[in-house]
C-alpha cells in the first residue's frame, strides 16, 4: 500500500524529515485521541471544574452562612432587578439592532460599511471606559444636558444602568444579525414576493421566522452580557443596586455570607432562565399567517423605509455611539491641559496605573496563549464531532458556561476554589480566572470557523493520501487562520476589559480596569484630567486591537 | 484477481439501512458505472471503498487483502466528490500536486507529475490560476487531474459530470473515459444518468435501496434486464399488466385488460399467472395498417414528442393502456398526428416478461 | 395581443453585458423554452421580467402594459426557482396557501384552492409534511403548485428540473407541459438541457453571451438552424471545415480535408470558407465491399452499444473522426472495432452549410 520509506535523496532538509516523522506519528490513533483527551481533561479540570466545585463548596458552607433580614431583602431586590433590566434591555436591543443590521447588509454602500465598523465600537471599548463615558454624557452639564440646559439629564441609578447596558449589548445583536443576514438565502424572500407579499410582509412572515434561532441566540448573548457586567455598572449605579453591584458592595463591606449567597442565587437563576428560554422559545408554534396587506404595503414603501432607517440611525447615534465616544472630550481636554507629560513620566498615581496596565497585559497574554493551545483541540472536537454526538453536546454546553454565568459570581467561586482550596498566589488565580472567563470566545469562534469549512475538503485531502497532521496543516489551518487570529484578539481584549471576576479575585493586585473603577468612584483620589487620561489610554489601546481585527477580517473577505 | 471485492457489506446510519449485504467484484482496469436513483446508496458505496466510512458488517478486499480497518490515507483509492472540492486556497497546480506530495514524493517530483497530468487534461496553461477563477468544465478537469495524479490505482468518481450543463456533458464524458483508460486506473463512476452510464461503462451495476439489482455488460443489462425497475432505468419501455391465457411452443398468449391480447415468446409460465410485459420504445412501430408481426394493437395517438434525432408517439390502446413508440430521423414533420387511429406493432421476440411485482407495477417503477 | 413583450432589454454589470439588446414576444398560452449554456443570461432575463432585477435599458410589457416601476409583488407572475425555495418553516399546505394568504383571501377560498392544487400535484397525503421530509421531485411539485395557486397566468420557470435525477426529469417535464396546457398558462421555461427544451416547447429561444441567437420551433431549431452555435448546441453533430469550389443553382460543392461533398444550399459563393455540419443519425454505414464505390472509406475506431442505438466513431482518411448513430434495429447489423466501412453522407439533404465564423470555429461553438 504505502511506500514507507522517506526518499532521503530528495528531502532537502532535516526539518522536512522531522516533519514527516511527526506526521506519521500523529496518524497513530492513540496519539490523536491522546491529544484530544488531554485537551478535554484540561478543559474540565482547569476551566470548568473549579467554577463548579467552587460553587458547590460554597453551597456546602451555606448552613453556616447567615444573612440579616435587611441584607436578604436587599439581595432579593438586587438580583430581581438584574433580570428585569437584563430582559428589558435585551429586548430593546433586539428591536433596535435588527433594523440597523438590515440596513448594513441590504444597502451595500460605502457609508453602510463604515456604519458596520462603528457598530462595533461599544464592543471594543473597555466597559469601564464605557461606564465613565456614559456617565459623562448623560450626567454632566457638558454632556447632553447642555442641549436641555440642565446639569444632568439622567442621574446614576436604574435608568442610567439601562442606558449603559443598552449601549454595550447593542453590538452583540448587530454582529450576530449581520452575520445571519449575510448567510441568509435571499431566494426565500424573493419567492415570497413573487407570490404577492410586499417586502415588509415577506420579511415578517418568511425571513424572521427562518432566522428565529439566530435572533434568540443574539438575545441570550445580550442578556448574558447585561447580567454579567460589573465594572461599568458600578460606575453608573450610584446608590442603586443590581445583582453584581450588590455583590461588589457586599464584598467591599466584608459581608462574605452575602457575597456567597448572592453569587449562588445569581448563578442558579441565570442557568434556569437560559435553559427556559432556550428550550421553550423554539417550541412556540409560529401562528397561522395573518396579513394586513394594505398596511404592510405602506410599511414597505419608500417613505416608511426612510423613516425606519432614520429612526434606527438616530437611536444608534444618540443612545449608543455618541455616549460611547463621549470619553474623547475629557481625554482630549486632559491632553490640552498638559497632563500627558506627567502620565508618561509615571509620576504620582500614574505609577500604579502603568503597573496595573502591565499586569493587565501580562495576564491577557498568558490567558490568550493558554486558551489558544487548549481551545483549538476542543474547537475541532465540537466542530467535527470527533467523540460522537453525546460527548460533543455535553462539551458544547459546558463551553458556554463561562458566558452564561455572571463573571462576578464566577469570580467568587473561582477565588474560593483556587485561593481557599488551592492556595495559589493571587497572580495565578487572576490568570486562571481570566482563562476561564475568556475561554468561550476563542473556542466558539474557532468551532464556528471550522464548521464553516466543508468536511469534504478534509475528507478529500485524506483520500488523496494526507495524514491527519498534514490535513490540519495544509487544509484546516490555512482556511481558518483569520478566525484564529481574530479569536485570539477577542480573547485578549476581553481579558484586558475584564472587571467582574477580577474584582472578586483581586485583593492587592489591581488590573487596569479595576484600578480605573476606583479612580472613577473616588476611592482613590485623582484629578479629573488624570481620570480622563487614564481611561483614554485604555481606550486607545483597545482601539488598536479593533483596527487590527478589522484589517484581518477585511483581508479575509477580500480573499474570498 | 479482482481489484475490489465486496463480500456481504452492510452499512447502517442509525436505523436506516443504506447498503444491504452487497456482494460484487470489480476487475483490474475495469470502468464500472454504478447506476441508480438518488438515495440508492451509490455515494455510501464509494465512501466505503475510500475508507471514509466503515461498514457494520462484511468484508472489503483490495487485490484480495482485507482493508476494512485501513484508513483512507493508506488505501490506494482516491475519492473525487461530486462538487469537486478543489482546495480554494491552492492554485490549480498545487491542487493536483497535493496527492503526490501527501504520498511522500519530493516537491520537485510532485510538481512534475502534476504538470504532466495537467497537460493530459489540457489545462497546463491555467496552472497558476485559483479554482474560483475557472469555469465549471475546467474545475471538473482539475478535479479529475488531481485524482489521476494522486498515485492511487483506484479512482472513485461521484457524479463527475453532474454539476455541468447537459450539452457539456455530452462532450466531456467520452474524454473522461479516455483519460481514465489512458492512466490504467480502475474506475468506479457513480451516476443517475443512464445515457452517461451506457456511454462510458465497461460494466454497469444497478443499485436501488441499498441492493444490487443487476450487474453486467451494458448489452446484457439492456436486452435481458433482471427486473422491471432495471428495464425501465436503462432504457425507455412501455409496461403492461396481463394474465397468461395459453402457453404453446410457438408462443405465450397473454390476456390484457379490456379484452386485448398479446403474443409473447414461449416460456415456462403457468396458466392464469399474472405477469408484466415490457416492450422497448424503439421496438414498437406505428402504422396505419397491420404489419407482418405477431402483435398489432389498435389505438389512437395521444401525444407526439420531438426529441431531436427521434420522435416519440404516445398511443392509447383501445383498452386504455399506453404504449410509446420511438422513431428515428423522421424529419421536420411527424408521420402521424394526434387523434389519428393507428396500429402499434411489435414482434413477439421483443417482449420482455417479468414476474408480477408484489407491490404493484406503479410502486415498482418509482424512481427512488 | 402578445402576453409578454421584451423590447431591447440590456443589463450591465460593470463592463460586462449580461443581457444585450434582447427582444422577444411571447403569445398567450405559449410554452417557450429559453435554452443556453450557463452564463448566457437566461436567468437574468426572467429575473428582469419578474422584477427581481432591473434592466438598465429597454421595456417590458405584460398584457401590453409597461411594468417598469411595478414591484415584484404586483406583477402577478408565478416564479419557480432553481433551488426550489420552499419555506422550510411551513408545511406543504401552508406553502401552497401562502400566495392567497398574503392577499388576505377568505379562509374558505384558501382551503379550497390549496386542496385543489394538492390534488393536481397528487400530494394530498403529504399536506402536513415539511419540505425537508420530501424528495427532490416532490419538493419541486410543491413549488410549482405554490406558484400556480396564486392564480397567475404567466409563469417563469428557472431550471425547474435542474435539481432532479435524470429519469425523474424526463417524466416530470411532460407532467409540467400537460399542466400548462390544461390550465391555459403562458410559460417561459429556462433550461440548459437541449432535449428538455425540444421535447416540450412550442418555441425555443437560443441564447449565448447575453444575446438571442435564434428563435424557432423545436424541429426548425434542430433540423434547420440558422446559426452554427445553435446547430452544435441543440444536439451532437459532426463539423468539418472546408471551402466551396463550385456552385450550381440550388446547391454547391464543398471541398473538405480530402473529400468533396454536395450540399443543397443556394447562398454560397465560390472560394467561400464554410463549415459543414451533419448529425450522427444522418450518416449511413455499410460494410465495405469492393463493388460499392460510393461513399468514403473508413474504419471503425470505437463501437458503443447505447441501447436503442449503436454509436460508432469512424476514422476517415484526411478528415476528423466522424461520430455516427445507427439504430440498433437496423438491418445493417452491428459493426466491430477495426471493421472497414463505407461512410455515406446521403444526397446532401441533411447536410447543413454555415459560413466560417469570424472568430474561429472553437470560439463560436464554445459552451463556456
Write up this protein:
The complex is a heterotrimer of chains A (560), B (368) and C (368). Chain A is an all-alpha fold. Chain A has 2 domains: 24-64 and 327-560, MetI-like (MetI-like fold), CATH 1.10.3720; 79-326, MetI-like fold, CATH 1.10.3720.10. Chain A has 27 helices and no strands. Chain A has helices at residues 14-27, 29-60, 69-106, 110-119, 121-124, 127-139, 145-148, 158-183, 187-194, 199-210, 212-228, 231-237, 243-252, 256-283, 293-300, 302-325, 328-336, 339-345, 349-384, 389-404, 407-421, 426-452, 455-463, 468-497, 500-505, 512-521, 528-559. Chain A is globular and about 70 Å long. Residues 1-11 of chain A have low confidence and may be disordered. Chain B is α+β, with helices and mostly antiparallel strands and 368 residues long. Chain B folds into 2 domains: 4-229, P-loop containing nucleotide triphosphate hydrolases (Rossmann fold, 3-Layer(aba) Sandwich), CATH 3.40.50; 236-365, Nucleic acid-binding proteins (OB fold (Dihydrolipoamide Acetyltransferase, E2P), Beta Barrel), CATH 2.40.50.140. Chain B has helices at residues 42-50, 92-102, 107-120, 136-149, 166-183, 194-200, 218-223, 228-234, 361-365, and strands spanning 4-13, 16-26, 31-35, 57-62, 65-66, 77-80, 154-158, 186-191, 203-208, 211-216, 237-247, 252-255, 261-264, 274-280, 285-287, 295-306, 310-317, 322-328, 341-346, 351-355. In chain B, strands 6-7-8-3-9-10 form a 6-stranded mixed sheet, with helices on both faces. In chain B, strands 13-12-11-14-20 form a 5-stranded antiparallel sheet. Chain B has a 5-stranded antiparallel sheet with strand order 15-19-16-17-18, with no helix packed on it. In chain B, strand 1 and strand 2 (16-26) form a beta hairpin. Chain B is elongated and about 75 Å long. Chain B starts with a strand and ends with a helix. The mean pLDDT of chain B is 93. Chain C is an alpha+beta fold. Helices cover 24% and strands 34% of the residues of chain C. A 6-stranded mixed sheet of chain C has the order 6-7-8-3-9-10, with helices on both faces. A 5-stranded antiparallel sheet of chain C has the order 13-12-11-14-20. In chain C, a hairpin with a 5-residue loop joins strand 17 and strand 18. In chain C, helix 2 (92-101) crosses helix 3 (107-120) and helix 3 (107-120) crosses helix 4. Chain C starts with a strand and ends with a helix. The mean pLDDT of chain C is 92. Classes of the chains: A mainly alpha (560), B alpha+beta (368), C alpha+beta (368). Chains in contact: A-B, A-C, B-C. At the B-C interface, helix 4, helix 5, helix 6, helix 7 and helix 8 of B face helix 5, helix 6 and helix 7 of C.
Amino acid at each position: 500500500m504505502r511506500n514507507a520509506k522517506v526518499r532521503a535523496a530528495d528531502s532537502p532538509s532535516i526539518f522536512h524529515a522531522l516533519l514527516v516523522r511527526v506526521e506519521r506519528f500523529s496518524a497513530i490513533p492513540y496519539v490523536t485521541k491522546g491529544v484530544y483527551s488531554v485537551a478535554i481533561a484540561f478543559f474540565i479540570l482547569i476551566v470548568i471544574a473549579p467554577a463548579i466545585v467552587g460553587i458547590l463548596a460554597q453551597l456546602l458552607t451555606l448552613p453556616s452562612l447567615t444573612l440579616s433580614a435587611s441584607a436578604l431583602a436587599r439581595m432579593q431586590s438586587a438580583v430581581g432587578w438584574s433580570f428585569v433590566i437584563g430582559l428589558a434591555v435585551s429586548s430593546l436591543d433586539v428591536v433596535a439592532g435588527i433594523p440597523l443590521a438590515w440596513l448594513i447588509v441590504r444597502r451595500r454602500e460605502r457609508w453602510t460599511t463604515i456604519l458596520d465598523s462603528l457598530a462595533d465600537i461599544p464592543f471594543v471599548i473597555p466597559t469601564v471606559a464605557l461606564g465613565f463615558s456614559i456617565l459623562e454624557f448623560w450626567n454632566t452639564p457638558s454632556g447632553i444636558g447642555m442641549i436641555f440646559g440642565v446639569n444632568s439629564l439622567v442621574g446614576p441609578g436604574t435608568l442610567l444602568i439601562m442606558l449603559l447596558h443598552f449601549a454595550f449589548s447593542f453590538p452583540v445583536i448587530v454582529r450576530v444579525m449581520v452575520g445571519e443576514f449575510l448567510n441568509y438565502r435571499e431566494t426565500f424572500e424573493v419567492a415570497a414576493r413573487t407570490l404577492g407579499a410586499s417586502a415588509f410582509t415577506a420579511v415578517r412572515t418568511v425571513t424572521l421566522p427562518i432566522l428565529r434561532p439566530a435572533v434568540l441566540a443574539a438575545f441570550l448573548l445580550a442578556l448574558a452580557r447585561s447580567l454579567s457586567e460589573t465594572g461599568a455598572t458600578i460606575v453608573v449605579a450610584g446608590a442603586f443596586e443590581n445583582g453584581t453591584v450588590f455583590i461588589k458592595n457586599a464584598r467591599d463591606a466584608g459581608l462574605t455570607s452575602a457575597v456567597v449567597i448572592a453569587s449562588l442565587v445569581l448563578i442558579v437563576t441565570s442557568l434556569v432562565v437560559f435553559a427556559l428560554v432556550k428550550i421553550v422559545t423554539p417550541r412556540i408554534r409560529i401562528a397561522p399567517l395573518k396579513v394586513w396587506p394594505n398596511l404592510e404595503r405602506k410599511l414597505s414603501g419608500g417613505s416608511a423605509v426612510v423613516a425606519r432607517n432614520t429612526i434606527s440611525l438616530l437611536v444608534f447615534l444618540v443612545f449608543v455611539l455618541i455616549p460611547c465616544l463621549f470619553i474623547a472630550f475629557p481625554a482630549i481636554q486632559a491632553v490640552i491641559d498638559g497632563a500627558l507629560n506627567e502620565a508618561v513620566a509615571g509620576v504620582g498615581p500614574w505609577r500604579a496605573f502603568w503597573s496595573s496596565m502591565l499586569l493587565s497585559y501580562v495576564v491577557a497574554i498568558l490567558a490568550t496563549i493558554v486558551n489558544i493551545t487548549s481551545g483549538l483541540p476542543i474547537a475541532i472536537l465540537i466542530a467535527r464531532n470527533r467523540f460522537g454526538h453525546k460527548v460533543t453536546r455535553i462539551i458544547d454546553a459546558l463551553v458556554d458556561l463561562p458566558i452564561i454565568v455572571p463573571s462576578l459570581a464566577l469570580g467568587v467561586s473561582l477565588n474560593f476554589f483556587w485561593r481557599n482550596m488551592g492556595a495559589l498566589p493571587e497572580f495565578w488565580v487572576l490568570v486562571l480566572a481570566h482563562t476561564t472567563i475568556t475561554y468561550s470566545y476563542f473556542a466558539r469562534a474557532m468551532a464556528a470557523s471550522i464548521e464553516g469549512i466543508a468536511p469534504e475538503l478534509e475528507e478529500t485531502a485524506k483520500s488523496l493520501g494526507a495524514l491527519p497532521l498534514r490535513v490540519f496543516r495544509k487544509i484546516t489551518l490555512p482556511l481558518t487562520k483569520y478566525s484564529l487570529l481574530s479569536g485570539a484578539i477577542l480573547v485578549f481584549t476581553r481579558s484586558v476589559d475584564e472587571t467582574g471576576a477580577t474584582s472578586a479575585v483581586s485583593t492587592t493586585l489591581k488590573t487596569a480596569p479595576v484600578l480605573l473603577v476606583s479612580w472613577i468612584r473616588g476611592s482613590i483620589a485623582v484629578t479629573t484630567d488624570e481620570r480622563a487620561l487614564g481611561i483614554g489610554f485604555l481606550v486607545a489601546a483597545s482601539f488598536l486591537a479593533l483596527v487590527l481585527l478589522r484589517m484581518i477580517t477585511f483581508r479575509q473577505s477580500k480573499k474570498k | 484477481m479482482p481489484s475490489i471485492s465486496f463480500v456481504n457489506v452492510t452499512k447502517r446510519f442509525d436505523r436506516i439501512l443504506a447498503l444491504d449485504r452487497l456482494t460484487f467484484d470489480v476487475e483490474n482496469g475495469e470502468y464500472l458505472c454504478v447506476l441508480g436513483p438518488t438515495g440508492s446508496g451509490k455515494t455510501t458505496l464509494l465512501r466505503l471503498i475510500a475508507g471514509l466510512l466503515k461498514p457494520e458488517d462484511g468484508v472489503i478486499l483490495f487485490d484480495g487483502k482485507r482493508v476494512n480497518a485501513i484508513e483512507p490515507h493508506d488505501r490506494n483509492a482516491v475519492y473525487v466528490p461530486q462538487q469537486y472540492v478543489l482546495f480554494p486556497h491552492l492554485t490549480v497546480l498545487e491542487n493536483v500536486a497535493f496527492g503526490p506530495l501527501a504520498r511522500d514524493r519530493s516537491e520537485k517530483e510532485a510538481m512534475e507529475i502534476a504538470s504532466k497530468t495537467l497537460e493530459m487534461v489540457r489545462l497546463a496553461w491555467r496552472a497558476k490560476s485559483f479554482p474560483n477563477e475557472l469555469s465549471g468544465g475546467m474545475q471538473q478537469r482539475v478535479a479529475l487531474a488531481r485524482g489521476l495524479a494522486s498515485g492511487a490505482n483506484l479512482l472513485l468518481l461521484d457524479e463527475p459530470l453532474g454539476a455541468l450543463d447537459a450539452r457539456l456533458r455530452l462532450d466531456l464524458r467520452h474524454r473522461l473515459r479516455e483519460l481514465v483508460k489512458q492512466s490504467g486506473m480502475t474506475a468506479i463512476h457513480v451516476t443517475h444518468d443512464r445515457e452517461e452510464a451506457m456511454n462510458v461503462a465497461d460494466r454497469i451495476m444497478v443499485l436501488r435501496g441499498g441492493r444490487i439489482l443487476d450487474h453486467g455488460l451494458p448489452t446484457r443489462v439492456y436486452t435481458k434486464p433482471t427486473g422491471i425497475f432495471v428495464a425501465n432505468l436503462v432504457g425507455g419501455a412501455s409496461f403492461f399488466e396481463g394474465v397468461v391465457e395459453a402457453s404453446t411452443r410457438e408462443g405465450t398468449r397473454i390476456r390484457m385488460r379490456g379484452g386485448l391480447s398479446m403474443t409473447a415468446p414461449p416460456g415456462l409460465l403457468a396458466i392464469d399467472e399474472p405477469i408484466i410485459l415490457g416492450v422497448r420504445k424503439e421496438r414498437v412501430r406505428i402504422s396505419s395498417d397491420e404489419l407482418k408481426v405477431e402483435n398489432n394493437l389498435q389505438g389512437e395517438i395521444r401525444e407526439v414528442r420531438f426529441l431531436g434525432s427521434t420522435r416519440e408517439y404516445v398511443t392509447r390502446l383501445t383498452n386504455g393502456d399506453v404504449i410509446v413508440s420511438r422513431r428515428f430521423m423522421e424529419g421536420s414533420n411527424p408521420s402521424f398526428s394526434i387523434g389519428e387511429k393507428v396500429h402499434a406493432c411489435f414482434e413477439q421476440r421483443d417482449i420482455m416478461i417479468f414476474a408480477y411485482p408484489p407491490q404493484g407495477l406503479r410502486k415498482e417503477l418509482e424512481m427512488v | 395581443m402578445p402576453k409578454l413583450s421584451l423590447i431591447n432589454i440590456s443589463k450591465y454589470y460593470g463592463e460586462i453585458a449580461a443581457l444585450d439588446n434582447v427582444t422577444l414576444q411571447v403569445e398567450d398560452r405559449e410554452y417557450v423554452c429559453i435554452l443556453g449554456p450557463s452564463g448566457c443570461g437566461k436567468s437574468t432575463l426572467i429575473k428582469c421580467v419578474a422584477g427581481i432585477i432591473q434592466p438598465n435599458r429597454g421595456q417590458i410589457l405584460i398584457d401590453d402594459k409597461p411594468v417598469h416601476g411595478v414591484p415584484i409583488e404586483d406583477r402577478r407572475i408565478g416564479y419557480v426557482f432553481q433551488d426550489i425555495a420552499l419555506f422550510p418553516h411551513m408545511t406543504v399546505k401552508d406553502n401552497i396557501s401562502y400566495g392567497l394568504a398574503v392577499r388576505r383571501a377568505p379562509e374558505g377560498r384558501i382551503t379550497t384552492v390549496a386542496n385543489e392544487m394538492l390534488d393536481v400535484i397528487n400530494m394530498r397525503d403529504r399536506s402536513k409534511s415539511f419540505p425537508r421530509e420530501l424528495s427532490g421531485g416532490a419538493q419541486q411539485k410543491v413549488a410549482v403548485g405554490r406558484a400556480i395557486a396564486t392564480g397567475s397566468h404567466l409563469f417563469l420557470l428557472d431550471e425547474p428540473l435542474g435539481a432532479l435525477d435524470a429519469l425523474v426529469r424526463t417524466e416530470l417535464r411532460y407532467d409540467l407541459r400537460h399542466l400548462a396546457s390544461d390550465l391555459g398558462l403562458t410559460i417561459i421555461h429556462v433550461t440548459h438541457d437541449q432535449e428538455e427544451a425540444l421535447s416540450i416547447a412550442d418555441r425555443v429561444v437560443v441564447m449565448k453571451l447575453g444575446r438571442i441567437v435564434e428563435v424557432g420551433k423545436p424541429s426548425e431549431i434542430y433540423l434547420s438552424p440558422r446559426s452554427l452555435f445553435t446547430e452544435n448546441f441543440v444536439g451532437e453533430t459532426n463539423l468539418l471545415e472546408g471551402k466551396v469550389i463550385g456552385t450550381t443553382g440550388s446547391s454547391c460543392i464543398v471541398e473538405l480535408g480530402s473529400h468533396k461533398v454536395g450540399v443543397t444550399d443556394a447562398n454560397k459563393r465560390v472560394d467561400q470558407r464554410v463549415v459543414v455540419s451533419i448529425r450522427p443519425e444522418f450518416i449511413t454505414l455499410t460494410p465495405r465491399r469492393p463493388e460499392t464505390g460510393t461513399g468514403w472509406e473508413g474504419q471503425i475506431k470505437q463501437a458503443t452499444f447505447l441501447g436503442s442505438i449503436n454509436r460508432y466513431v469512424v476514422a476517415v482518411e484526411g478528415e476528423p473522426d466522424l461520430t455516427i448513430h445507427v439504430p440498433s434495429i437496423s438491418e445493417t447489423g452491428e459493426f466491430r472495432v477495426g471493421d472497414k466501412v463505407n461512410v455515406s453522407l446521403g444526397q446532401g439533404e441533411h447536410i447543413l452549410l454555415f459560413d466560417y465564423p469570424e472568430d474561429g470555429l472553437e470560439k463560436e461553438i464554445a459552451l463556456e
